[in-house]
Amino acid sequence: MKNILLAIISGLLLALGWPTYGFPGLLFLGFVPLLLVEYRVRTLRFHKSIVFGFAFLSFFIWNMTATWWIYNSTPFGMWFAEIANTALMALVFLCYHIVARRSTFKISMLFLVCLWIGFEYFHLHWEFSWPWLNLGNGFANHTSWIQWYEYTGTFGGTLWIWIVNCSIFKGVLSFLKHKDKTILYKTALRNGLYIGIPILISILILNTYTVPKDAKSVSILLIQPNIDPYTDKYNTTNKQIGAYLNAMVTPKLTEDIDFVIAPETFFAENTHIRRFPFSSAKKQAQRITTSAPKAHFLGGISIYDRFRDSSKVHAQTNIIKPNDFYDDYNSAFFIRPDKTTELYHKTKLVVGVEHFPYKSVLHPIMGDAMIDLGGTVAQKTTQQEREVFFTKDSIGVAPVICYESIYGEFISEYVRNKANFIAIITNDAWWGNTQGHQQHLAYARLRAIETRRSVVRSANTGISAIIDQTGKIKTSLGYNEQGIVEGSIVTNTKMTFYVKIGNYIARIAAFLAPFLFLYAMTRRRNS
Length: 527
Fold this sequence. Notes:
alpha/beta; Nitrilase/N-carbamoyl-D-aminoacid amidohydrolase; 2 domains; 15 helices
């Protein structure tokens, strides 16, 4: 019963430490009760499968509390995500248990930290990618603590959390063994420094951060139409949306406006890619650039390409019937004052809703169960390169579509391609008025710090916002509100250490983990 209680406490600490309702300081001790459970199981020589069960209980509480809101979009998808992610986390803990039974405390702790970071890194890249609960995201609403993410990315936060948890765990074990209260005092002091010093460094960086001297001021209008995606959005023609756009934006247009930005799939009526130059969506958006001499338009559009040439078929192509194929895109389009245009196709897709993972293996088993989860039955087609849209004055904007914004290293590729600021277009209404859209906004603040790029965010329904280069939200429009966010940002041309190097902490951890495992498995078992 005591082990069950400790496992529940771990789950609650992790859940209550999560944004946007929680206090991230709890993450620094969230794993300690579960580590104590594992230690008790190990010393009492219980079967290792019990560790998996206790870990599953802890992580299920955390996953469900933090991301239950997926249910509003897809009940099946929510249960799949919660159970699968929980099982993966529990498997990591089981691997740690196996190593801990055969190695020293230091080796087992180092292995656990490396394995967990490796797991998070893996979660960024495989086809069932779901890095929403990567530990470094936990500080998203306390950006004054983590200004050093410009050097480490979110994996610096994950490492920080694990260092403190392991240190507290070591102190607790020492106290339980020796019953000496001075051990607790020393543990508290040591971990106070482990927590406090990085925060002080962050505050110093924050208070001394200055906008680059070559920065340019950019005037922005962000559209938040607040159209219900379940009832109205996909039943509204692009012509109707264009009229709506014109009515909303025209009163706000001045000769000083540089960018008008509309949300993901703003023009939701499918447009054939070859007809885009003559489409209603393009014509309606061009009216904006005609009304304001400097205005550039960036917005979301649903685009498809239907063809009969079988040589053009690839892994993401949808088959209608023999010799009848189509590619389906979730795209952003860009219009300059001179009427030239560009397209970018979303790359990081939502599992199930836009992407069928390992389709060749799973489709014969599951049919369309994995793809028919959230408003589309078509596999989306992606592009490989991170395309940046440039103005005539060489200001580069990164067109980031929805889910892509939670991938730090992915976003840094835009910056390496000379993006001077980041524009996130999204539709967060699928989840209702829950923590989902609030967490999504909070994670955008992490991208600002990692890249030192201003972030502008246009949400169909969610929270549209302007975020500065330190992750501070300058202005925003709340959930279920309709309107325009007006403001200005400054550009940046410098690249942070993280942008240049990427997730080096994760790569080092992923490299070390298998060697530590092999070392533990080949050494003599502890007595």
